[in-house]
């Protein structure tokens, strides 16, 4: 459980597959009970590096677009009418990513990105954690959403980091 303004907020846990960008169009992100929670729709990815995150009812909750023409590759995310840009940080030890949120507090991701062992922080508070320790399935890792953070945002950031890390 996380804390938010004195009240406990449940930690949400999702299960993602490592081969998210493999062959095939759609990939389901499951909750920790194995229920389909979000879908990464990659149909547009073949034309332009774009993924759409949909909830279980098929509503679009995030768009994830890779930008390869910039000096540093970046991925733009749109969630709930807000834009965020995910890019690899050039300074610092270890693997780090910065997430610049338009009109909101920025986030950071740090840890062993390639090993799916890292945290996403906002103002020093952990809002997301990515780890293989919760699931024993091969090629699977977990995404925890803390502190009442928007699950679509944390999952979209995770998809963006995975795309940038594989380049």
Verbal overview:
This protein has one helix at 151-166; strands spanning 2-4, 7-9, 12-17, 26-31, 36-41, 50-55, 60-67, 74-79, 82-88, 95-101, 107-112, 117-122, 125-131, 140-145. The radius of gyration is 15 Å and the shape is globular. The protein is 10% helix and 50% strand. The model has no long low-confidence stretch (mean pLDDT 83). The strands form two sheets. It has a twelve-stranded antiparallel β-barrel with strand order 3-4-5-6-7-8-9-10-11-12-13-14. Strands 1-2 form a two-stranded antiparallel sheet. It has 167 residues and is mainly beta.
In short:
The protein is 10% helix and 50% strand. The N and C termini lie far apart (35 Å).
List the helices and strands and how they pair.
Elements: E1 2-4, E2 7-9, E3 12-17, E4 26-31, E5 36-41, E6 50-55, E7 60-67, E8 74-79, E9 82-88, E10 95-101, E11 107-112, E12 117-122, E13 125-131, E14 140-145, H1 151-166
Antiparallel strand pairs: 1-2, 3-4, 3-14, 4-5, 5-6, 6-7, 7-8, 8-9, 9-10, 10-11, 11-12, 12-13, 13-14
């Amino acid at each position: 459980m996380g804390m938010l303004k004195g009240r406990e907020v449940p930690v949400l846990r999702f299960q993602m597959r490592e081969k998210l960008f493999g062959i095939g169009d759609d990939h389901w992100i499951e909750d920790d009970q194995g229920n389909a929670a979000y879908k990464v729709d990659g149909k547009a990815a073949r034309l332009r590096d774009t993924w759409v995150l949909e909830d279980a009812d098929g509503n679009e909750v995030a768009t994830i677009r890779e930008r390869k023409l910039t000096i540093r590759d970046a991925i733009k995310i749109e969630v709930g009418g807000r834009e965020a840009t995910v890019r690899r940080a050039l300074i610092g030890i270890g693997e780090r990513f910065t997430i610049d949120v338009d009109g909101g507090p920025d986030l950071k991701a740090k840890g062993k990105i390639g090993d799916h062992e890292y945290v996403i922080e906002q103002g020093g508070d952990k809002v997301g954690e990515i780890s293989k320790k919760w699931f024993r399935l091969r090629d699977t890792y977990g995404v925890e959403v803390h502190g009442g953070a928007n699950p679509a945002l944390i999952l979209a950031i995770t998809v963006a980091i995975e795309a940038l890390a594989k380049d």
